[in-house]
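Predict the structure of Enoyl-CoA hydratase domain-containing protein 3, mitochondrial.
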Amino acid sequence: MLLLERPVPRVALLTLNRPAARNALSLALLEALQSAVEALGRDDDVSAIVLAAAGPVFSSGHDLKELTAHRADTDAGLAFFTETMTRCAATMQAIIACPKPVIAAVQGTATAAGCQLVATCDLAVAAENAHFATPGVNIGLFCSTPMVALSRNVSRKTAMEMLLLGEMITAEQAAAHGLVNRVVPQGQALEHALAMAEKIAAKSPLTVSIGKRAFYEQAQMPLAEAYAYTADVMVRNMLARDAEEGIGAFLGKRKPEWKGC
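Done. Here is the predicted structure for Enoyl-CoA hydratase domain-containing protein 3, mitochondrial.
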C-alpha cells in the first residue's frame, strides 16, 4: 500500500502502491501516509522525503468505491465520510508540519485529492505527460478540501477555473500556474525529484527545518507581523551552531560540516 525506501543517503522515498486502484487515497492509505511522514520527520537520518506512485497514475483522489460502500451503513456513511475527510486533512497538515521538505514526483495524472496531495508537498516535479484536475464538480462532489491546497498554490482565478470546470490541465500549464516546480521528460520525474532531495540533504538539516516552518507560518501573517516573526527566526537561527559553522566556512572558503544544531 505504501512503500518506504532509502535510495540515497539521507533521502526517504515513499511510494503510493495501489496501482490497480489508481493509487486512490483509501482511509488506510491516508493513515499509513500520515504515520510515515510523521515518523520520517522524527528520523535524524532523513533530511528530505520524495513522494512517488507506482503505475501510470499518481493518484486519482479519494477511493470512491470505498466511500460508496459505506452508504450501506446504518448512518448512510456519515461516520465513515467524516473520518475519511478528517484523516485526509490531518495527513495534508502532517506534510506541512513535517520538518523535512517533501517533494512530489508526478508521473501520469493527479486528480481531486491526488492533486491536493501534489499541491500540499513543498516541491513538485512533473513528467511532461502528467495531468492535473479537481474534477469533483463533474460528479456532484465539489473538491472542497483539495481547494485548500490548490488555492494556496495558484491564483484565485486559476483555482476557480479548475474547481468549476473540472477539466484536466497539462504539466506545462501546472508549472505556469505554480502548481509544480519543474516539468521533465517522461519517465524522469522520480530521478529529478531525488536529485533535488539530494541537494537539500547536503544542507544543514536544522536550517532547512527552521526555514520550512517559518515559510508556512509567515505566509498566514499580515506584512508587519511577518517581518517581526521572521526577524526573530533569523536571530535565533544566527545563534545556532550550524549558522556559525556555515558562515565561517563561507568566509574561510571551505566546505561546512553540519551537525544539525
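The mean pLDDT is 97.
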